[in-house]
Design brief:
By secondary structure, the protein is α+β, with helices and mostly antiparallel strands. It contains five helices and eight strands, in the order αααβββββββαβα.
Length: 286
């Protein structure tokens, strides 16, 4: 309520108590009090209206919050219902998948893939063999070995013997390989060109303690390792090679094969006349 109205009422009451004859009609405490009551009624009415508005707003807010909670509850109830249905459906799906998986044959997928593919090999297709492949020169006499087998060659410096696999070719080469397996030994580790060599006589079967013979390069020949040999069979001997066989028969067999390819040889007391496809291949190459 206005402080001016209260002040006017107090002043009017004071004037009446001190000088009642000099008070005007407007300053009559009754009239002033009526103004106070009017002002008080107006103020109370406004306060009550504000109070009602606040209460109504609070009630509306409560109803609004209640509506929000009810909407959330309704949405959650719908979600829970659909989630329950979905869980049941998922469980049924998983159960059916488990049944199908247990009944699935392990080779079903591959059989299905093989049935629609045009790029798979038939398991019954036979494997290829190099022996069945024909190529130019496969049957040429020059590629047929004259002789092949194990021999021991005397080392130059240590004077000990080392065993190796040797192949005598119709072209006149004596090749040493690290192994008799052609898949692991494709290139010779040592070679000697026999048309530029002299073959010494084989050891005697009765007097010699070991079965060996010598090969020496001629003065005008060249060995396969790129060095130019020199000296005669009984000369300096820098390029003479000594070979040893396991038996006298093996020695004579390889010695007679070598005899057909060297430039010259010394006649031995025991010789074997060679005949057949190998000898014919050697003679055809020249």
């Amino acid at each position: 309520m206005s402080t001016k109205v209260i002040s006017d009422l107090n002043r009017a009451i004071g004037n009446v108590n001190h000088t009642p004859m000099s008070v005007s009609a407007k300053e009559d405490p009754f009239a002033v009090n009526m103004a106070v009551l009017k002002q008080l009624q107006k103020q109370v009415a406004e306060e009550n209206s504000l109070q009602k508005s606040i209460i109504i707003m609070q009630q509306n807010s409560a109803h609004f919050e209640e509506g929000i909670v009810r909407s959330i509850q309704s949405a959650w109830s719908t979600f829970d219902e659909w989630q329950s249905r979905m869980s049941t459906s998922v469980q049924d799906t998983w159960r059916q998948l488990g049944v199908n998986m247990s009944q699935l044959m392990p080779d079903r997928e591959w059989i299905s893939f093989a049935a629609r593919s045009d790029h798979l090999l038939d398991p019954e297709t036979p494997l290829r063999s190099p022996d069945h492949i024909d190529y130019p020169g496969k049957n040429d006499p020059s590629i047929t070995p004259v002789h092949s087998g194990l021999l021991e060659r005397k080392k130059r410096f240590t004077k000990s013997y080392k065993e190796g696999f040797y192949v005598l070719t119709p072209a006149g080469y004596l090749h040493e390989y690290a192994s008799s397996d052609p898949s692991t030994a494709t290139h010779p580790i040592w070679s000697l060109f026999l048309p530029a060599c002299t073959l010494g006589p084989p050891s005697s079967a009765t007097t010699a303690k070991s079965h060996k013979f010598h090969i020496e390069a001629r003065k005008d020949g060249t060995s396969a390792n790129g060095k130019t040999p020199g000296g005669g069979l009984f000369g300096r001997g820098d390029h003479a090679f000594t070979f040893r066989a396991r038996s006298h028969e093996e020695m004579m067999e390889v010695w007679n094969d070598l005899r057909m390819l060297v430039a010259r040889y010394l006649v031995a007391s025991e010789q074997m006349e060679r005949d057949g496809p190998v000898a014919h291949a050697v003679r055809s190459v020249g």
